[in-house]
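DH200=94 genomic scaffold, scaffold_3857: structure, please.
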Amino acid sequence: MQPNCKFIQKFFKKRLHSLCRKVLEVGVLAWSLATALVPFLAGYMPGLVASRILVGMGEGVSPSAATDLIARHV
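Here you go.
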C-alpha cells in the first residue's frame, strides 16, 4: 500500500463505515480502470501520472474496506 494513500484509507474507513462494500467496489473499479488506461496513455506523461494516482487511491482504500467487509460477515 502506498503511504500517501493512508489518509484516504482512514477517511473512508471512519466516515463511510456503513458503506464498506461500495467503497471496495469504487476502489477496485478505479484501480482497474487506471491500470487499463496505461497502454493508451503511454506517450503522455501527465496521463501516466494521473493513472498512477488513481491506482494508488484504489489500492489505498481496497485493503481496509475488504478487511472490514470480511470481519463483519465472518
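Notes: The longest helix spans residues 45-73.
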